[in-house]
Amino acid sequence: MWEKMKQWIAKLSPKKTDFDDYRLIVSSSEFHLIELYKMKLDEAHVFNIVINKRDSAYNNFGEIELYVKFDDVIRAKHIIDYE
After folding, report:
1. What per-residue confidence (pLDDT) applies to 14?
2. Which regions of 1-83 does DSSP assign to beta strands (E)?
3. I need a surface site. Which of 20, 33, 40, 56 has the fewest CB within 10 A?
4. Which domain holds residue 73?
């Protein structure tokens, strides 16, 4: 019985996705700042993802987020802060 319950719970638990390896580096409501950071990271060959969570109707609410892979977090923070 416990084995069946474990199998049932395993089916319900979320599977690992490709995005689980990414960490949030910076978020801002200013799109131009995120684009500047993105260009800096691209220039240093650090792969990054920008997710726009701003409200499309009003553009006053929400943030724009910049993510990098977990292995590149320290390098990306250094590039954004000091270069």
Report:
1. 78
2. 22-28, 48-52, 64-69
3. 56
4. 21-82
Q: What confidence score (pLDDT) does residue 26 get?
A: 96
**Residue 60 falls inside a structural domain:** yes
Which structure tokens are listed for 25? 């580096």
**Nearest C-alpha neighbor of 26 from the set 12, 83, 79:** 79
* pTM, two decimal places: 0.78
Q: What is the pLDDT of residues 37-70, one digit of tens each?
A: 999 999 999 999 999 998 887 777 889 999 999 9
Q: What is the CATH number of the domain that holds 39?
A: 3.30.70.790
Angle (nearest 5°) at CA 20 between 43 and 77: 35
**CA within 13 Å, CB half, 9:** 6
Query: What are the strands, taking DSSP E only, across 1-63?
Result: 22-28, 48-52
